[in-house]
Amino acid sequence: MDQLELNPRIIAAVSRAHLKSAREVLCVSGSDLQRVTGLSSSDVQQLLIAAATSCRRHHPIAALVLHRKFDAGLRLSVGCPVLNQLLRGGLLVGGVTELSGESGAGKTQLALQLCLSVQYPTQYGGLHSGAVYICTEDSFPIKRLQQLITDQSLLRSDVPPSLISSLQFSDRIYIEHVADLDSLQVCLSRRVPLLLTRGLVRLLVVDSLAALFRSEFQAADWLERSKQLLTFSSTLHHLSSRFTTPVLCINQVTDFLSSSDDSLGPLSSSVSPALGLLWANQVMVRLMMRRLQVTVAQGDQSSVLRRLEVVFAPHLARSGRDAAVWREGVRGVMREVEMSQWRGSEEGGGGGPHFCLTNKETNGCK
Amino acid sequence: MQRSVSSLSLSPSVKVKLVNAGFQFTADLLHVKPLQLSKETSLSQLEALEVLQAVRGETGGGASSSLTALELLQKEEELRSIVTFSSQLDAALGGGLPVGKTTEICGAPGVGKTQLCLQLAVDVQVPQCFGGVGGQVVYIDTEGSFLLQRVVDIATAAVQHCSLLVEDDEQQVAMATFTVETILSNTFLVRCHDYVELLAELHLLPDFLSNHPKVRLLVIDSVAFPFRQHFDDLSQRTRLLNGLAQQLISMATSHKIAVLMTNQMTTRLRGGQSQQVPALGESWGHAATIRLLLHWAGPQRLANVFKSPNHMGATVRYQITSEGFRDVDQSEQPPSKRARKHTVQMAAAREPSET
């Protein structure tokens, strides 16, 4: 409070009113402030301007200046060029991305792939850092992670094999098991900020949300649940913006009651993400994954086809891509019509062979 | 604008009594009655009256000079509305987003509120010879949804749209100042991470607006997000929101800008049924002059003007394309005809005031 450039008389009046910081001053409405400090209106104006100046982080900046900064369009690659194209580069590094879907849809597979992809240097779409993976339900799928690590060079043919073998992937993935809300809050307020501050991680995955928020509360406790959900989301947002770190929340789905009027969008499926409107308002990018009725094959492997869809995002069209889950990871599969559109645009990147969805045999379509 | 009392032409003893009672600046004396003043300063009633007359004389009649309704109407007509690229929405709003008033957009996540804000932030910069306002914009982003990738898409489409409409030399010259780069340089971005930062920014904005008189639009995306964090004292939140609404209205009128804010939806239980209503409480409903509700009806997106002093509630369909916020039946009308209607309208409105 003393650091504000104000007449000492004003500062004295403010401390008599038990307001200790500029933030507290701003939290009191104008007329209350006058009443509580006994200052004249022009003094209160000066006080507010001084308090506001100290709380403001920066002046309004022209967007052109931001555009020219080197990390303006920074994204975290998903590890597959088809899926990156859907996301226009990858995950956003600020804000919460939600990935929801039925069990077995492949959400955890994609999350594991991101934990590896973040460790590459920025020229290969990574953030040159590790990941924190918070598990709330099942135990962490460590064997699957090892399998993905072994086959990384098959997935990421855009990265030189020497670089891949030099990275110690499993060393930089920090796994936290959290059984209830209290331990989740402790983890997010102590352990995770420590890892972020030290620069050891630059991706936060929470798998999965609904498990914690659903089981703990009965329907009558929705007020308490809302409060906890808001606190949790506020923590995630602060971490994400303070450390420019992508946050991925995995969510489950509930049945969509078509009779109700409050639709959260023209969902083509019969399920919608859990936790309702309150949570949906906190999410910047909402993705959904679902299983399709088709199987594809690659060499000796076969996989049920999935569809990864963008439900909403400020910079993405509502669109989707098919994807398959192989030993080496999740790979997008282009449909015929998407392939021709993609060839037309200039965004073809490197990456492994692409498979056409025409029949069950492999087609080297590219 | 702080004029101290000691500079007024009054006798020194009177000035001393004023200062001792706490009246430092003429601004403090503007709303005081003579009786109140004489009680607080122990001046005689006559002296108090003289003081107030001196103050009013110096400040040229004080803050309240009265206008006739006709003058007000003429002033309003001089302020052009901000035209969007969706003629149906413009028609529903009575010409476009009104300057000098506050407008609120409510809707569920993903329905297109941020898209409309970004579209208007570009549309406000369309040069006057194309029917636009040619102003700058201050964009307060509280959620982090101002993504340059998307802004560049919308700006590029707008520039392209206007370049197809060029018919004369004046417009050709104007196109040189309407490029993606100039659009980005005329957009002033502020990122607020919580409600205190938002309140701070709004206290400092009048100063910024005085230094940048070309700003014609203020966007706050969104007001709801920072205020829907957990507040222990909801009545404090209501007071803060009321103060914020007052500040926005006064900025809109005194600096002649359009204020656009977005709000979220929340569920209310009414009579056993749950329905979606705009967030931030009942009293916040009075903050904006015009309220727009964006919602889904099956696969369609609809915009409903559900509060407006001038126009009946209208509902229009819209779509979000890679180019931005557009009408659904865009392809039916050739673009040149539509724009000419706008420029002709605007030119006609301009003539009476250009005496």
TrEMBL record, chain A:
Similarity comment text for this entry: Belongs to the RecA family. RAD51 subfamily.
Region annotation Disordered: where it falls in the sequence: 342-366
The keyword Nucleus is annotated on this UniProt entry: yes
Alphabetized Pfam families for the sequence: HHH_XRCC3_RpoA, Rad51
GO terms for biological process, alphabetical: double-strand break repair via synthesis-dependent strand annealing; resolution of mitotic recombination intermediates; t-circle formation; telomere maintenance via recombination
Compartment(s) where it occurs, according to its Swiss-Prot or TrEMBL record: Nucleus; Cytoplasm
Name of the protein: DNA repair protein
Biological role: Involved in the homologous recombination repair (HRR) pathway of double-stranded DNA, thought to repair chromosomal fragmentation, translocations and deletions.
Organism of derivation: Gasterosteus aculeatus aculeatus
Lineage: superkingdom: Eukaryota
PROSITE patterns for this protein: RECA_2 (PS50162)
One GO MF term attached to the UniProt entry: four-way junction DNA binding
From TrEMBL, chain B:
Similarity-based family: Belongs to the RecA family. RAD51 subfamily.
CDD domains, A to Z: Rad51C
InterPro entries: AAA+_ATPase (IPR003593), DNA_recomb/repair_RecA-like (IPR016467), HR_Repair_Mediator (IPR052093), P-loop_NTPase (IPR027417), Rad51_C (IPR013632), RecA_ATP-bd (IPR020588)
Full protein name: DNA repair protein RAD51 homolog 3
Chain residue ranges for the region called Disordered: 325-355
A Pfam family per the record: Rad51
Keywords: ATP-binding, Cytoplasm, DNA damage, DNA recombination, DNA repair, DNA-binding, Mitochondrion, Nucleotide-binding, Nucleus, Phosphoprotein
Keyword Protein biosynthesis: no
Superkingdom of the organism of origin: Eukaryota
Record-level Gene Ontology MF annotations: ATP binding; ATP-dependent DNA damage sensor activity; crossover junction DNA endonuclease activity; four-way junction DNA binding
Organism: Gasterosteus aculeatus aculeatus (three-spined stickleback)
UniProt KW Phosphoprotein keyword: yes
GO BP terms, alphabetized: meiotic DNA recombinase assembly; reciprocal meiotic recombination
Coarse class of the protein's main subcellular location: cytoplasm
GO cellular component term of the entry, any: Rad51C-XRCC3 complex
Annotated compartments: Cytoplasm, Perinuclear region; Mitochondrion; Nucleus
Record domain RecA family profile: where: 78-265
